[in-house]
Amino acid sequence: MSVLTRDEAQTRAQILDVERYTIALDLTTGDETFDSRTVIRFTARAAGDTFVEVKPATLRSISLDGQPLDPALLDGNRYPLTALAAGPHELHIDAAMRYSRTGEGMHRFTDPTDGETYVYTQLFMDDIQRVFAAFDQPDLKSVFSIDVTAPEGWTVLGNGVAEHAGEGRWTIAATPLVSTYLVAVAAGPWHSVTTEHAGLPFGIHCRRSLAPYLDADADEILDITRALYDRYHEKFDEPYPFDSYDQAFVPEFNAGAMENPGLVTFRDEFIYRSAVTDTERQTRAMVIAHEMAHMWFGDLVTLTWWDDIWLNESFAEYMGYQTLTEITLPRALHSGSAGEAPFPDTWVDFGVARKGWGYDADQRPSTHPVAPDPDAVPDTASALLNFDGISYAKGASALRQLVAWLGEKDFLAGINTHFARHKFANATLADFIDNLASATDRDVHAWAEQWLRTTGVDTLTAEIAAPEPAEPAPNGNGNGQTWALAVTRDGSRPHRITVGTYDHALGAQGGPGHLAPRDRFELDVPGDGTPTIRPGRRPALVVLNDGDLTYAKVRLDTASWDTVLTSLSGIPDALTRAVVWNTARDMVRDAQLPPATYLAAARTHLPHETDLALVQGVLSFAAGQVVDRYTIPEDLSAARATLTDLCRDLIRRTEDGSRPGLRLIAVRHFIDAATQPDTLRTWLDEGTVHGGPELDPELRWRILTRLAVLGATDEAAIATVLAADPSATGREGAARCRAALPTAEAKAAAWDALFTDDTLSNYLFTATAQGFWQPGQEELTDDYVARFYPDAIALAARRGPAIAEAAGRYAFPAYAVDPMSLGTGTRALEDPALIPALRRKLVDQLDDLRRALAVRSAVALAD
Question: What's the rounded Cα separation, in Å, for the pair 77 and 129?
């Protein structure tokens, strides 16, 4: 298959205007393929040669302006259109297309719960060619008219309102001008909840087997959707540009969601079968907000080429989090109250759950600017690699800093100018910066060069000088004393930050060492080199980037760090605590803070933490990185005991039922950290955690997975639980458990399923890979470390980017933290058969492995 190059796209865009696609899809032709008939009306501005992309199972016929062409001329995924005359043309293509089981193109899924079948499209980056023929590039926007023939009893959804004409025939309203990758169709016996808002039909849809769970949350989802819609209309001058707003929760979806105009598709794990925390509900709400923002950023105004993917993703990420903090809902939402912002700590979740993703990606060899140079994205294969923590989390952080520097009023004015100038068209970074510059006197072009065209993470370090006070003065007031703050910057970007200062609170109730805020002040870094002089005695704690408005690693002064170790949970603001926890996280990764110290801080302070996002983020890093990868073998037993004791303490503190979300997080992590099976087996046998909660499907499969790792269950027990839960997630749970069993036979069978069989869907592949590699099973899996690289390289070449990404992410031997594993992987990067998607994942994984080795080495030297 040939990938499209930027030069080819530019040449084709100069030659063609594409007016309309008329597409007929027949989904009744069998289980393996569907029929696709496409008519493309386009105009050639001048005589010349070009090509159309299509990836058929069978290309039955093709004709241009009524003249048949030879189907045998199809070269991979390209059909040449040679000697085109200037003027209008009509291209007809009739093909059979393959259904996908990897979430690419037209994905087909049969629900094991009830046998019902569903199909949906995911047409991002080259995959539209798997569904219909197209001039597949984002700057050849067109109108799309689609008719679908589906089995009786199915409902068809699309970018516009779909009307049923009887006998399984559906007509989807024509779109306005949109890019090819944004076309969407979803068909099946959907369960739907519909309403109307602002004169438009709104709907949410899922598999029938998930109907009770969607119905339970329908009011919440629709309330959030309506509130976001209204808030975006307060921000943006351009109205919502499409004729309806459907949200389909679809099975085996590779991403979190996709911003198809009028038909957003989400992974259907967002329809919760089991108990979740308010933070997880907030995450779902943020994804809804993110995708709705794309209706303007990406759909109304679309990038010209993939080097500007940040113009889609960074803006949707920033707008999603920001707008979610601003909406109000008509009814109470869990712990919130009617008429209040339902998610007041949205930026805490961003700071602890997303920002580290950006920091990590930006410190790897694969880093790239938020807005790469166009030459750095020469084709679609390289563009696909940039959907990462830089394009999402770093870009959103940069925009948050831009708003802090520019002011929200001017920022929104520039955005609205951008929409007005480029609606239903395409735009570049230069266009966007020009439009922002039109709304302000500030030098936005210079800001963009410093923030969007550079790589890496700046580090801001506090240096404080203060005389010893003659006598203590409460709250920092007294005796005419002053203290001085100097901030050094390792890096090149300007930062506008808030500095927060805190004193020990006298007689206050709270966590260990409760702190009281003294003041906050703004600071520009770099300044003129003169320390900032502040009145009063030296504060107990000085926090740079308090409020988390910039993107930089922070290093506290020594005295402040001493305060943190004793008083972190006593900091009154959750966002400040997130900044400090991220500082600790960064220091562990940079081998500046011993893993044991991080664990001790978690053990001391998490029992007093009130923000669920922080508890979840800290526990996840502690378990997945600190214990499983950074701790040297000699300290592992103590580290696991600390983690288990922490989880047990959290469970004890929530026995009164007052904090079910915190209890759920603690129970999950206790299960995952358990080194003995007795308690888990008792919970599984009794169907409940003592004191609650009762075991739902997620907890049941989580316990069984851990028992499998510990060798305390077997194939028969797994089959029994699967029989009670024969759902898609049940099948994934069973696959994970089977691969986790500590026997040579189980590992061999899992490996064969992953790398030889080629029949696993994307989700079953992921579940099997997750089960295979387990800390503590090294004797069983050591021989597979070297096998991983040639087997993964061959697999990726056969099955393509989606499975390649899954193999690199989930099937990588992450727990083989030793120099031999690093050397084997490094040599594998030289293999010319590596496809770009897998190479990128391996580069990142090996850099993380290198970092883990450096952390362990630092601990060993210190000992």
Answer: 8
pLDDT digits (tens, 9 = 90+) for 783-820: 999 999 999 999 999 999 999 999 999 999 999 999 99
291 is catalytic: yes
Q: How many residues does the chain have?
A: 863
* 453 to 265, 419, 447: CA distances (angstroms): 32, 23, 10
Q: Which residue has 């089977």 as its token pair?
A: 738
**Rounded CA gap, 770 and 626, in Å?**
19
Q: Tokens at residue 216, please? A: 């339970």
Three-state DSSP string of 599-620: HHHHHHHHHHCCCHHHHHHHHH
Contact 370, 379 (CB under 8 A): no
**Contact status, residue 744 vs residue 226, Cβ threshold 8 Å:** no
Cα 378 to Cα 7: distance, rounded to the nearest angstrom: 8
pLDDT band at 562 (very low <50, low <70, confident <90, very high): very high
φ, ψ (nearest 5 deg) of residue 693: -85, 165
In the β-sheet with 515-525, what is the strand arrangement from edge to edge? 515-525, 495-504, 541-543
Give φ, ψ of 628 to 5 degrees: -75, -20
Q: How far, in Å, CA of 86 to CA of 109, rounded?
A: 44
> Using an 8 Å Cβ cutoff, are 684 and 653 in contact?
no
State yes or no: cis peptide before 469, omega within 30 of 0: no
Q: What are the CA-CA distances from residue 266 to residues 141, 252, 387, 665, 840 (Å)?
A: 24, 10, 17, 24, 25
Are 248 and 265 contacting, i.e. CB atoms less than 8 angstroms apart?
A: yes
Q: What is the pLDDT of residue 516?
A: 96
d(CA 349, CA 343): 10
The percentage of residues in the chain with a pLDDT greater than 90, rounded to a whole number, is 93
Residue 328 scores a pLDDT above 90: no
Sheet containing 553-555: order of strands: 532-535, 482-490, 459-465, 553-555
Is 340 a residue whose pLDDT tops 60?
A: no
Cα 251 to Cα 74, 108, 204, 742: the distances in Å are 33, 9, 14, 30
Confirm if 111 and 251 have CB atoms less than 8 A apart: yes
SS3 190: coil
Q: Is the full-model pTM beyond 0.90?
A: yes
Average pLDDT, the chain: 95
Q: Which position among 53, 104, 259, 291 bears the catalytic label? A: 291
CA gap 638, 634 in Å, rounded:
9
**H/E element, 448:** helix 444-452
235: closest CA among 159, 315, 303, 348? 315
pLDDT value, residue 345: 79
Tell me the C-alpha distance between 118 and 154, whole Å. 9
184 closest CA partner among 202, 168, 172, 200: 172
Closest by alpha carbon to 336, among 283, 287, 281? 281
Tens of pLDDT, residue by residue over 615-657, are 999 999 999 999 999 999 999 999 999 999 999 999 999 999 8
Among residues 369, 298, 304, which one has the least CA distance to residue 6? 304
Please tell me the predicted confidence (pLDDT) of residue 374.
87
Buried b (16+ CB within 10 A) or exposed e, 826-856: eebeeeeebebbbbbbbbbbbbbbbbbbebb
**Which tokens go with 585?**
């996280």
**How far is the C-alpha of 816 from the C-alpha of 590, rounded, in Å?**
20
pLDDT at 179: 98
The rounded Cα 311 to chain-centroid distance in angstroms is: 16
